[in-house]
Write a structure and sequence with these properties.
Layout: E1 2-6, E2 10-21, E3 24-35, E4 44-58, E5 61-75, E6 90-106, E7 109-126, E8 132-133, E9 136-137, E10 140-141, E11 146-147, E12 151-172, E13 176-193, E14 202-216, E15 220-231, E16 235-249, E17 255-266, H1 270-274, E18 280-281, E19 289-302, E20 307-319, E21 322-328, E22 333-338, E23 340-356, E24 359-375, E25 395-404, E26 408-417, E27 420-421, E28 432-433, E29 436-448, E30 451-458, E31 477-484
Parallel strand pairs: 18-22
Antiparallel strand pairs: 1-2, 1-31, 2-3, 3-4, 4-5, 5-6, 6-7, 7-12, 8-11, 9-10, 12-13, 13-14, 14-15, 15-16, 16-17, 17-19, 19-20, 20-23, 21-22, 23-24, 24-25, 25-26, 26-29, 27-28, 29-30, 30-31
């Protein structure tokens, strides 16, 4: 069991159990979380329950059932950095997932059969007219007022998904590991103003895939495969994948080269395709997002495996990325569009060092150069050809130091995010978001027996920044809690 409290009226209570008896094993938990956050009308509440039950039918056959339920509600005051918050608007969401699977192993072959049902019910409420105000930021003002559009009935976005899949794995000697399978899912929806007739779209997606992992000699692995799927929204697509790993040197100072190439697709959501609200109209002509990605990297271990460093270069080409855009600044009505073609390329560096048994250091840095190459959006200049991709910082990094002893541990993390392209989307004309640096810290102490205490601080320096333009990030937050673990071997 756990209990935690702190800044912004943060309260979290959690309890769980895990264990096994005979042919059964289980894992279950419940959680209650509430916080007022910092802006007006931004209270958040969440209740969650999850359970997993396994059963061993025989030494080679196991089954598992999973149930998860999550209910959350929060106030939605809007972009409060620009002026008046909406004090009555809110958002509610309920998620339910139920699934079951059976796994069977027979010699060199393995089989996995799964089926399940998932449902998400989202409701956006705005019962009272909060009036009009003109957004402004640091002396800059929008050329028109921003008015509220109340809707007592609320907008609904309910989707349900029924899915099933089969997967087989076959080992051919020591050189090949073959995998293949098929899956199908049927989606239904009920979207729109709850006071009117709801849209009820449906679509079915069917896919098949195959993959082979091949050992070449003693040091190289090649993985290649692909997937073909048929979707009612966009037809038939095929995506390949190829990966190579080569161990240049073994031992404590091992060197490994890795490279991969792959293509992918992402279907538009029901709301993006069919949704209807005052602020967002669906676009049934949306194409799926398509990507083509290549990367090559080097992993080096040194100092008797106490130092691990990885350098990876990547290049990604995206077509038909889905983005929201305002099409009428009188009503603030928007829709979703495909951007055409964009690309992102760059370098990732990460390192982990264990200079002492009780001290760990890690750092990550990413450089990203992105650009809109072809644009299908004539409404918003942030999507124009030559512009960087929205909210993709050119530089970002993090550094963490950890100390760990038998009775206590502590850590310190610095996160730095550089300037990035963004838009206020309310007519002020902002097209960039400033860089920021945040400091987080935590300490954990074993009090006595099964009792453990911790203290965590986020944004310790109380930095003022916005991860997304218009929405101020939380200031300094400090939380503390207690955990008790009983039964078995404890933690």
């Amino acid at each position: 069991g756990e209990a935690e409290a702190g800044s912004f009226d943060w309260q979290r209570y959690q309890a769980g159990t895990t264990g096994a008896r005979g042919a059964f094993d289980w894992n279950a938990g419940v959680q209650r979380l509430t916080t007022d956050n910092e802006e007006p009308n931004s209270r958040y509440e969440q209740n969650a329950v999850a359970a997993s039950l396994g059963f061993r039918f025989s030494p080679r056959t196991r089954g598992r059932a999973v149930v998860r339920w999550d209910d959350a509600s929060l106030g939605t005051p809007g972009p409060t950095a620009y002026g008046r918050p909406d004090l009555d608007a809110s958002f509610e969401r309920e998620d339910t997932v139920v699934s079951a699977s059976v796994r069977h192993a027979a010699g060199r072959a393995g089989h996995l059969l799964s089926a399940g049902y998932a449902r998400t019910d989202q409701v956006s409420l705005n019962p009272i007219d909060s009036g009009c105000s003109t957004p402004e930021w640091e002396g800059q003002q929008a050329p028109f007022p921003f008015c509220d559009f109340p809707n007592p009935d609320g907008f609904q976005n309910r989707t349900a998904r029924l899915f099933g899949s089969y997967r087989a794995d076959l080992s051919l000697g020591t050189r090949h590991l073959l995998s293949g399978g098929a899956d199908i899912e049927h989606e239904t929806g009920a979207l729109g103003n709850r006071g009117d007739d709801l849209l009820e779209p449906t679509r079915t997606n069917f896919g098949v895939y195959a993959q082979d992992r091949v050992l070449l000699g003693r040091r190289a692995y090649v993985t290649f495969g692909g997937r073909v799927e048929r979707n009612d929204s966009y037809g038939t697509e095929a995506v390949p994948r190829l990966a190579l790993a080569y161990r240049v040197r073994d031992g404590e100072n091992a060197t490994t080269l890795r490279s991969s190439f792959g293509m992918g697709i992402k279907a538009p959501s029901f709301f993006e395709s069919f949704g209807q609200s005052f602020f967002a109209q669906g676009n049934p002509d949306l194409e799926p997002e398509r990507s083509r990605t290549f990367d090559v990297g080097l992993e080096q271990r040194l100092l008797g495996n106490r130092l691990r460093a990885v350098v990876t270069g990547f290049s990604s080409d995206y077509r038909d990325q889905i983005a929201y855009t305002v099409v009428d600044f009188d009503t603030f009505e928007g829709t979703y569009v495909n951007l055409g073609r964009t690309r992102a390329r760059g370098l990732e560096v990460e390192a982990d060092l264990q200079p002492r048994p009780w001290l760990g250091l890690s750092g990550q840095y990413t450089f990203t150069d992105s650009e809109v190459l072809e644009s299908a959006n004539d409404f918003d200049p942030v999507y124009a050809v030559g512009e960087p991709l929205l909210r993709r910082p050119r530089h970002q990094g993090a550094f963490t130091a950890r100390v760990s002893f038998p009775r206590w541990s502590a850590g310190l993390t610095v996160v730095s995010v550089g300037e990035r392209a963004d838009s206020d989307f309310v007519g002020i004309g902002l097209t960039g978001n400033a860089a920021y640096t945040r400091l987080d810290a935590r300490v954990r102490v074993r009090v006595a027996g099964p009792l453990e205490a911790w203290l965590a601080a986020e944004n310790l320096t109380d930095a003022k920044y916005q991860e997304v333009l218009g929405y101020p990030a939380l200031g300094r937050a400090v939380r503390g809690g207690l955990r008790v673990t009983v039964g078995g071997a404890g933690r």
